[in-house]
Amino acid sequence: MPYCANCGNSENLASTLFPPSSDTAGAPPYGLLANFDAEGCITTMECQGASLDDAQMAFEEPEKYFDMCPVCGSKNIRWQ
Ligand SMILES: [Zn+2]
Predict the structure, then answer these.
(1) Centre of ligand 1 from the C-alpha of residue 12, in Å
(2) pTM for this one?
(3) How many Å lie between the centroid of ligand 1 and the Cα of residue 60?
């Protein structure tokens, strides 16, 4: 399953390839977030700027799109 090599988080990953929609102060710096189950499969996704088409593409090729740990902000994501 995918995980963050920095903090060990494997529950969710973010994609910075999709910019967030709002420029509200404090908004997360990513447009899409995915939650993973214990098998490493995406269970739910939260679009925060990404469109549904964007989310579908990311769902099909998560290794290409999810590049950031939303917990610690690291981009040191491991896929295995
Ligand atoms: Zn992390």
Answers:
(1) 9
(2) 0.90
(3) 23
